[in-house]
Specification:
The protein is an alpha/beta fold. It has one domain (about 10-110): B12-dependent dehydatase associated subunit (Rossmann fold, 3-Layer(aba) Sandwich). Helix content is about 35%, strand content about 20%. The protein is built from three helices and five strands. It has helices at about 20-35, 45-55, 95-110, and strands at about 10-15, 40, 60-65, 70-75, 85-90. A five-stranded mixed beta sheet has the order 2-1-3-4-5, sandwiched between helices. Helix 1 (about 20-35) links the parallel strand 1 and strand 2. It is globular and about 50 Å long.
Length: about 120
């Protein structure tokens, strides 16, 4: 009998080597509050490249890239250079959390929270 690994639908978060753990934690809290599963992985490249790759790797089509400089939320149906949201990694915790919330809300088809 062949072995099949079930793929869990989830938002993918790709983090660069110097991504701040507190920033990633705020993103995860935003997603978790909306009840959508997520997975984190180490990524390479810019936040934009990681977000685009993460959205392609996500069964839900939603990916986030986090570098030491910025956070990008991407949707697989968009062109690479046109992400949904792009903010600095030094943004306030509420704004960072809202990026995570908005990724989850994209999956749920709900209105986005405001991002400064």
């Amino acid at each position: 009998m062949p072995f099949y690994k079930a793929v869990r639908p989830s938002i993918k978060i790709f983090t660069g080597p110097e991504a701040d753990d507190d920033v990633v934690r705020q993103l995860m809290l935003g997603i978790e509050e909306e009840g959508i599963p997520f997975e984190t992985e180490k990524g390479n490249g810019t936040a934009l490249e990681m977000a685009y790759d993460a959205s392609g790797a996500s069964t839900l089509g939603v990916g986030v890239g986090v570098s030491s400089r910025e956070i990008v939320l991407h949707f697989s149906k968009l062109e690479k250079d046109h992400p949904l949201f792009r903010i600095g990694s030094g943004s306030d915790p509420e704004t960072v959390r809202n990026i995570g919330t908005n990724g989850a809300r994209l999956v749920k088809g709900m209105p986005f929270k405001e991002v400064q």
